[in-house]
């Protein structure tokens, strides 16, 4: 009986060890430029989002909205070819005010993650 219990325990431990990286493999925002809550003297020409793992271009979007909720027209966000953990959104002619960045990405595991943060331009 003890041998069977040891075999079952070893199997459970092995399965948990193998599955752990897949469970934790969701893309998370590591850093951004501008940072959440930043108050900038000048408007950024680009918003850069860096994730903890590679993200897929086909499933990555970034939307920029103004204080009143109006969506700011921008080109489509692009995953950096040299470093697929980075998503870049070019911005043009942002005026003073508060902006909200809404992002959605899918990592290697295919799970879609979303998030938002705001920054202001003086």
Structural class: alpha+beta
Query: Quaternary state, please?
Result: single chain
Number of helices: 1
Helices and strands, in N-to-C order? HEEEEEEEE
What is the average per-residue confidence, as pLDDT, rounded to a whole number?
86
Uncertain regions: pLDDT < 50 for 5+ in a row? Answer: 8-24
Q: Name the shape in a single word.
A: elongated
Main beta sheet: 4 strands, antiparallel
For this structure, the CATH topology is: Immunoglobulin-like
Number of DSSP E strands: 8
Round the Cα radius of gyration to an integer and report it: 20 Å
Cross-sheet strand order for the largest sheet: 1-3-6-5
CATH domain class: Mainly Beta
Helix % is 10-25%
Under the CATH scheme, the architecture is Sandwich
Strand content: 35-45%
How many independent structural domains? 1
Distance between the termini: 72 Å
GO cellular component, one term: periplasmic space
Signal peptide: 1-25
GO molecular function, one term: copper ion binding
InterPro entries: CopC-like, CopC/D, CopC_dom, Cu-Rt/internalin_Ig-like, Ig_E-set
Description:
By secondary structure, the chain is α+β, with helices and mostly antiparallel strands. It has one domain: Sandwich (Immunoglobulin-like), CATH 2.60.40.1220. It has 1 helix and 8 strands. Strands 1-3-6-5 form a 4-stranded antiparallel beta sheet, with no helix packed on it. The radius of gyration is 20 Å and the shape is elongated. Residues 8-24 have low confidence and may be disordered. One of its GO terms (molecular function) is copper ion binding. Pfam families: CopC. Keywords: Copper, Metal-binding, Periplasm, Signal. It comes from Massilia yuzhufengensis.
């Amino acid at each position: 009986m003890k041998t069977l219990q040891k075999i079952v325990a070893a199997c459970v431990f092995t399965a948990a060890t193998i599955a752990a990286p897949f469970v934790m493999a969701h893309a998370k925002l590591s850093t951004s430029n501008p940072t959440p809550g930043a108050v900038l003297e000048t408007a950024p020409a680009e918003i850069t989002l860096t994730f903890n793992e590679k993200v897929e271009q086909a499933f990555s979007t970034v939307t920029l909205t103004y204080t009143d909720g109006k969506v700011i027209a921008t080109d489509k966000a692009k995953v950096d070819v040299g470093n697929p953990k980075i998503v870049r959104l070019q911005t043009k002619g942002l005026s003073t005010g508060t902006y909200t960045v809404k992002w959605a990405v899918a990592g290697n595991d295919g799970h879609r993650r979303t998030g938002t943060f705001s920054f202001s331009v003086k």
